């Protein structure tokens, strides 16, 4: 068979056009997903967290509210730290076990 130059099925300019159209569509979809996520986040927070009412509170009531909020934040931070520490310990333990195993040598 003689060597016949095959023509590409799609021209370079057409290929570039299709690529740019696909990127534009992907960007549009990503922006819609981002907006939907933000709307869901704000809806969830509005549902779960009531609005903070500080109007009309006395100074001592505001201080008590601040103490309560700080205590709650501290509890959450401790839990987060414990979880991070435990996950870090598991990772270090796995690395130590892998280094100690005879199959790794």
Q: Helix segment count?
A: 2
Helix content: over 70%
Q: Uncertain spans, ≥5 residues at pLDDT below 50?
A: none
Average the pLDDT over all residues and give the rounded result.
Answer: 86
Radius of gyration from CA coordinates: 29 Å
Q: Roughly what fraction of the amino acids lie in strands?
A: under 5%
Order of secondary-structure elements: HH
| Overall shape | flat
Write up what this structure looks like.
With 105 residues, this protein is mostly helical. Helices cover 75% and strands 0% of the residues. It contains two helices and no strands. It is flat, with a radius of gyration of 29 Å. Keywords: Actin-binding, Muscle protein. One of its GO terms (cellular component) is troponin complex. Belongs to the troponin I family. It holds the Pfam family Troponin. InterPro entries: Troponin (IPR001978), Troponin_I (IPR050875), Troponin_sf (IPR038077).
Q: What tags apply to this protein structure?
A:
single chain; 105 residues; mainly alpha; 2 helices; flat; Troponin_sf; Troponin I1, slow skeletal type; Troponin; actin binding
Can you describe this structure in just a few lines?
This protein is mostly helical and 105 residues long. It has two helices and no strands. The model has no long low-confidence stretch (mean pLDDT 86).
Topology:
Blueprint: H1 12-48, H2 59-100
Keywords: Actin-binding, Muscle protein
Family: Belongs to the troponin I family.
Function: Troponin I is the inhibitory subunit of troponin, the thin filament regulatory complex which confers calcium-sensitivity to striated muscle actomyosin ATPase activity.
